[in-house]
Structure formats: structure tokens, C-alpha cells
């Protein structure tokens, strides 16, 4: 993540994602509100191809092993907490850092965990826009050595396993809901160089998972997704859950009996109280996409029922990955919001020459561009001298200021490299601005 101004922008964005879904969930008040032992909201998907549901669960797991036990009982406990970079595309300050932790893998099964982590990430990044923007992610695998193989609740409710993170099916009496100990999870996540999002892979072939979001204030990262290792349907759970944290997207499903939307216009980009005519007239929300053919099938419009309520609130398309796991497609407004989220936490351009010291006309200036050369993304790199574009250098990642036209006049000049993503998946000028970042050098001799 970014430091300084951009970091606070990210924090604000993530804080928003906390506040807004919580308001929507408030009506789901069958959840326990007891504070005897912290509870947190989770989302889960009772059926592999169905809509989601939310409930409140304990933040701690009764099945997590004490940290010391792993060392006492495990031959190769030195592996416990070891970090393996799965994908390192750039400096953590300019990347979204995903940390994947395994649970229910013994010391002898850590290679299995690494393989499962690679497979799951590969499956997530087959889904656009993750696919097109994979180059903005670093992925860190953290080994957690469990005393027993497998996880609690697999295959049956009565089965218990002593595991590093205490993940378990049958959480809150719901078979497919995999909960985890959030403090144990954090103790491993903190071993990675940086963590913006966490995925916990539970060693199981049984379909299941969950999503915790809005954790930033307590844990430093916004979301934790749990999913089972050897069930390919569980991959969509992570793809959906990360979208809450990255794209600040709302759920596009509703509950029977919830009735009228009780709130004013929500902050999330993919739900609105406006019907298409009013949205178009106000040029807000997904107005630029109305009437377009959508990757999820059908045409973008305003479909009633979203953000858990049945009436008076609309989603952009009949179906999407934010509504149900029977599709792996984000709709066009969701896709644009995801791209905005990628660039809130990551930069496509990284200066490879220090910008904090002045350079000469003969100093070679270089930048690195994120490797986004397939799919939706389309990076455009331009160079400027004192604000005027040096058109001959368009697309060059390494230049000499003298060649750009910096004059030898003993005055101070500024050379700037700017990248912008010209992807057609973005239509909002504000999001287009987010895709851009620059590096500027002072040329003094
Ligand atoms: Zn959701």
C-alpha cells in the first residue's frame, strides 16, 4: 500500500467499505449482538452456485491450537511462519499485497499448501478484472504448521482437528460457513512484508468458505476470505469477497421479506435508489453504462432488489458475481469499480531513479511499468519537460533529459513521466484519474 497521502486515501476508502455494508446489514438482526467474546459479521454462500447470506460469528475459534504446541510437537516447526513469495510484481508501496495462509496442513504437507495457494490464485486471476490487473498484485504465501491434517467439521459436524488457525465448517450451525480465528490469522499475516487482503485456504475438498470485511480498524487489512483448498467452486467466494474490499462493491442480492430500502442513496458504486431515467438525468452512478451489453449477459439497466432489500433499490444487471456464484462475471459498473480499487492501492508506474535528488541533462531516467499487457488494461506512458509533452518519447521507459529537449541553459527544469490506463473498461473521469500516476525529476545541470 501507499504511504503518506495515498495511504490515507486507501484507509478512507476501506473505512467506507466498513461503514456502508454494516448499515445495510443492520436490518438482518437475527445476528447475535452479544459482546461476550467479540463477534464479527461474515458473508457465506450456502450453495455453491447460489446467493450469499450474512451472519454474525465469533472472532475467535475454539479449534485453534496454541502457538507453542506447533513447536513442541512438530519436527520441522521452523517452517511455521515462513513466507514464500508466490508473485512479486513490484514494491509493496505500489502494489496490492495479498497474503495467503494455509490451515490444516501439517509440517509434511507444506508443499501441498504452496501448490494449493498457487492453484487458487491462478483460478482467481482467470476472472476479469483480476486477470487483466494481476500485475498490480504481490502474493505472499505464509506457512502455518498444523498439528493435524484437515479441518474441523470435515467431513462431518462432529469431526474436530487441531489446526494453526482453527478454521471450521459448521460455523454458526451452517455447514458451508468456514470461520477462522482472526487473531491467529493476523499473527501469520503480519509475517508477510505487507498485507492488504488475506486469503485463508483450509485443507479440505468440501465446498465452503466465508468473507470477513471491514476489519481495517482492528487488523490493519480490510478483508479475510476463507475457502476450501480442493473445491474449485470455493474460488468464487474469494473473488466475490475481495471485491467488497477492493472495489467497495455492495452485494447485489436481496432477502425475501426485507421489503423497502430504508436508507438514502448508498455510497457503493453498484447499488442505487435511482431508476435508469433519473440516473441518466443526474449523470451519476452507472449512468455511462446504461444500455450497454454486459459481460454477465443482458443489458445494463436498473434491476430492483439489491443491498439485501427487495424494493426501492437497484442493481446494474440481472445477475453478476456480486449477486450469486452461478457466474464468474462482474458487470460493467462492478468491473470499473474494481479497476478503481486496484489503482487506489497500486501504481502502474514506478520510478527506477531516485526522484528526491536533482539530476543532470545526461542522467538516464528510467521507469518501470506494471506488466499489464493483456486483457482490459491499456497503459499509455508520456514524458513532459516543464509541462510540455516530449512526444518523441511516448512509450519509452528510459530517456535522457537532453534528448527530451531539456535546454543547456543553467536553469532548473522539470521532467515528468506520467502513465494513464486508457482501458475502455473505465468511463468515469474520476476513475480515469485514479489510474494515472507520475514521477517528476528536477534537472539542474
Ligand atoms: Zn458479498
Features:
six-stranded mixed β-sheet; alpha+beta; disordered N terminus; Immunoglobulin-like; four-stranded antiparallel β-sheet; binds zinc ion; globular; Collagenase (Catalytic Domain); 3 domains; single chain; 10 helices
Concise description?
By secondary structure, the protein is α+β, with helices and mostly antiparallel strands. The protein contains 10 helices and 17 strands.
Please give a structural write-up.
The protein is an alpha+beta fold and 445 residues long. The chain has helices at 4-25, 67-73, 110-124, 182-189, 216-219, 235-247, 276-282, 332-345, 401-404, 429-434; strands at residues 39-44, 53-58, 83-87, 96-103, 137-142, 197-202, 209-212, 223-228, 303-306, 309-315, 349-351, 365-369, 379-385, 388-389, 398-399, 413-421, 437-443. It folds into three domains: 31-247, Collagenase (Catalytic Domain) (3-Layer(aba) Sandwich); 276-344, no CATH class; 347-443, Immunoglobulin-like. It contains ten helices and 17 strands. Helix 6 crosses helix 8. The longest helix is centred in the first third of the chain and has 22 residues, at 4-25. The structure holds zinc ion (ZN). Zinc ion binds next to helix 6.
CATH architecture name of the largest domain? 3-Layer(aba) Sandwich
SS elements, strand count: 17
CATH C-level category of the largest domain: Alpha Beta
Low confidence ranges = 1-36, 69-75
Number of domains: 3
Distance between the termini: 34 Å
Q: Helical percent range?
A: 10-25%
Return the structural class.
Answer: alpha+beta
Question: Overall mean pLDDT score?
Answer: 90
Q: What proportion strand?
A: 15-25%
Fill in the CATH topology of the largest domain: Collagenase (Catalytic Domain)
Amino acid at each position: 500500500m501507499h504511504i503518506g497521502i495515498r495511504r490515507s486515501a486507501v484507509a478512507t476508502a476501506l473505512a467506507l467499505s466498513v461503514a456502508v455494508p454494516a448499515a445495510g446489514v443492520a436490518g438482518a438482526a437475527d445476528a447475535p449482538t452479544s459482546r461476550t467474546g467479540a463477534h464479527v459479521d461474515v458473508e457465506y454462500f450456502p450453495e455453491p452456485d447460489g446467493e450469499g447470506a450474512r451472519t454474525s460469528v465469533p472472532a475467535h475459534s475454539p479449534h485453534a491450537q496454541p502457538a507453542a504446541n506447533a513447536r513442541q510437537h512438530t519436527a520441522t516447526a521452523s517452517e511455521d511462519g515462513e513466507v514464500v513469495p508466490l508473485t512479486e510484481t513490484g514494491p509493496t508501496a505500489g502494489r496490492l499485497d495479498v497474503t495467503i495462509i494455509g490451515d490444516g496442513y501439517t509440517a509434511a504437507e507444506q508443499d501441498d499448501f504452496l501448490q494449493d495457494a498457487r492453484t487458487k490464485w491462478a483460478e482467481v486471476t482467470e476472472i476479469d478484472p483480476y486477470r487483466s490487473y494481476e500485475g498490480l498484485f504481490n502474493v505472499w504465501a505464509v506457512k502455518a504448521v498444523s498439528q493435524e491434517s484437515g479441518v474441523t467439521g470435515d467431513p462431518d459436524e462432529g469431526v474436530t482437528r487441531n489446526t494453526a488457525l482453527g478454521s471450521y465448517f459448521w460455523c454458526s450451525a451452517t455447514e458451508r460457513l468456514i470461520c477462522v480465528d482472526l487473531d491467529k490469522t493476523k499473527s501469520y499475516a503480519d509475517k508477510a512484508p505487507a498485507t492488504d487482503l488475506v486469503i485463508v485456504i483450509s485443507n479440505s475438498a468440501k465446498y465452503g468458505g466465508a468473507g470477513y470485511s471491514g476489519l481495517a480498524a482492528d487488523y490493519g487489512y480490510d478483508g479475510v476470505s476463507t475457502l476450501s483448498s480442493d473445491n474449485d467452486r470455493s474460488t468464487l467466494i474469494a473473488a466475490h469477497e475481495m471485491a467488497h474490499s477492493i472495489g467497495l462493491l455492495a452485494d447485489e442480492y436481496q432477502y425475501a421479506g426485507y421489503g423497502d430500502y430504508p436508507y438514502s442513496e448508498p455510497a457503493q458504486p453498484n447499488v442505487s435508489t435511482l431508476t435508469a431515467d433519473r440516473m441518466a438525468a443526474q449523470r451519476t452512478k452507472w449512468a455511462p453504462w446504461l444500455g450497454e451489453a454486459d459481460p454477465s449477459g443482458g443489458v445494463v439497466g436498473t434491476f430492483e432488489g439489491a443491498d439485501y432489500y427487495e424494493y426501492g433499490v437497484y442493481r446494474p444487471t440481472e445477475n453478476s458475481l456480486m449477486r450469486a456464484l452461478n457466474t464468474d462475471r462482474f458487470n460493467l459498473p462492478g468491473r470499473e469499480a474494481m479497476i478503481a480499487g486496484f489503482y487506489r492501492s497500486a501504481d502502474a508506474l514506478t520510478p527506477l531513479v531516485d526522484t528526491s535528488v536533482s539530476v543532470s541533462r545526461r542522467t538516464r531516467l528510467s521507469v518501470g511499468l506494471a506488466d499489464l499487457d493483456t486483457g482490459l488494461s491499456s497503459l499509455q506512458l508520456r514524458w513532459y519537460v516543464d509541462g510540455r509533452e516530449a512526444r518523441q518519447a511516448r512509450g519509452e521507459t528510459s530517456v535522457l533529459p537532453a534528448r527530451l529537449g531539456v535546454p543547456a541553459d543553467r536553469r532548473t527544469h522539470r521532467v515528468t513521466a506520467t502513465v494513464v490506463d486508457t482501458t475502455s473498461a473505465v468511463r468515469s473521469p474520476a476513475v480515469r484519474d485514479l489510474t494515472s500516476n507520475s514521477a517528476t525529476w528536477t534537472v539542474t545541470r
